[in-house]
Design goal:
Layout lengths: L2 E6 L3 H11 L5 E7 L2 H10 L4 E4 L8 H6 L6 E6 L5 H6 L4 E4 L4 H15 L19 E6 L2 E6 L5 E5 L2 E5 L4 E4 L3 H8 L4 E5 L2 E4 L3 E5 L2 E4 L3 E4 L5 H8 L2
Parallel strand pairs: 1-2, 1-3, 3-4, 4-5
Antiparallel strand pairs: 6-7, 8-9, 8-12, 9-10, 11-12, 13-14, 14-15
């Protein structure tokens, strides 16, 4: 079984390095080179591939933004110089996350994972159709006598305040009469995790783990409770 590979990166030296690695492995074959995400979307719409070597930081459309537009993406191995996107990338199902400069042994380990997943009798890959993104999910919460519409993607974290819960959004704070446990039950299926007796966080906003703290977008720091630490580590794949 020969796996077809597509390299997507805006830097020519990155293409040359990956091409040299691919040339050493009989089971991998280069299907094409793209130098931005839009070019790659057009390629994937026409040509089936098995493995996508995808850079993150590219003009117009980032690698992660591109990946979210694919209804049936191929196996994705991210190739990037930025480590802070690792947690977010694993949430959307990438096979591996390779930091530049990429060593051959790490490249080989990542591709072996794809081969192991595919097995020897995998049918040929099919083109990944482009579909419009689904409507963004939201919910309503009552605060100050008003029903506020809250988009899940904008909610950074929730904080227990006695018999109330405070929702932390980019430009406002909403205080609602509810318990953190009940709010977590409503939000758990949308990527929210309880990390402390007083905090529930949006995992999509997590950028790093430092000691007993989660670092969120906007330089926010959320403590991890001792009784929640193993659950948190397991969820973020550390």
């Amino acid at each position: 079984m020969i796996l077809q590979c597509l390299i997507v990166d805006d830097e020519p030296p990155a293409h040359r390095l990956l091409e040299s690695y691919l040339a050493q492995l009989d089971r991998l074959q280069l299907a094409g080179n793209c130098y931005n995400a839009v070019e790659a979307l057009n390629f994937l719409h026409q040509t089936p591939v098995d493995i996508l070597f995808l850079d993150i930081n590219m003009p117009e459309l980032s690698g992660l933004e591109m990946l979210r537009t694919l209804a049936q993406p191929p196996a994705v191995i991210l190739t990037t110089a930025y480590s802070e996107f690792a947690l977010e990338s694993y949430e959307i199902g990438v096979v591996d996350y390779l930091l530049k400069p990429i060593r051959f042994d790490r490249f080989l380990k990542a591709t072996n994972r794809v081969v192991a997943q595919r097995g020897t009798d995998t049918p040929p890959a099919t083109p990944a159709p482009l579909t419009p993104p689904p409507p963004e999910p939201f919910f309503f919460v009552k605060a100050d006598g008003t029903q506020h519409k809250v988009w899940y993607r904008e909610l950074h974290y929730l904080e227990a305040k006695g018999n109330f819960v405070q929702l932390h959004l980019p430009d406002q704070r909403l205080l609602t009469a509810d318990t953190l446990s009940k709010m977590h039950q409503k939000l758990a299926d949308h990527g929210f995790l309880r990390v402390h007796k007083s905090y529930v966080v949006n995992l999509k906003k997590v950028r790093a783990l430092r000691g007993n703290q989660l670092l969120l977008e906007g330089d926010l720091k959320i403590p991890i409770g001792n009784s929640y630490r193993q659950i948190v580590l397991g969820k973020i794949g550390v």
